[in-house]
Amino acid sequence: MCSITGVTTLHARAERDAVCDALTVAGPDAPTLCAGWSAFDLAAHLVLRERRLDAMPGISLKPLAAYTDKVQRSLKAEFGFEGLVHAVRTGPTGVYRVVPGFDELVNTMEFFVHTEDIRRAQPDWVPRESSPELEEVLWRRLRAGARLMLRRAPVAVVLHRIGGHGGHGVALGGPKRAPRVEVTGRAGELLLFCFGRQAHARVDLTGEERAANALRSARLGT
């Protein structure tokens, strides 16, 4: 277990290794679930998040995206694929290291999702077996952020979590007065669904067919 000023970073460290292992196995040209990105692009994105805070706003703000893309390309040229993977694996760096708990808070979920972005874009993938402890962490993050992730949902959404130490759990999102769709699965699968990976999340949807189809094709995530 790693720690920074006494704050455990067990899950962030494990998921950091998992995403690096997935990148290494897939290779630089492998596709990912991030539209238009290869594994090489995704590796550069992960390094940019930790080492180039000046370029981070463009990840979510379109007017600044051109600068972020430029920095991402420069990182690919500077490090190469293997160098980028090594840079991710040897982290955290910057604010992720000096602010107690920040690595665990932010990167556990980020690395989990991006590991699956690599794995589930490959043929014949199978789900990873997540520990009950990791499922608990992911569920807490999801419950806290469900309304934000589902803010563009065209229907009311009820997330039903199964498995884990806590058993069943419920989280809500989407417009309250719209038709309702129930989404059931393990915490990690629900997280992927709410992050916009609906087509690759192993969940069950219950509700009126038109509403369920609208949710499947909606642009979800932060």
From TrEMBL:
Coiled coil: none annotated. It comes from the Bacteria. It comes from Sinosporangium siamense. This is TIGR03085 family protein.
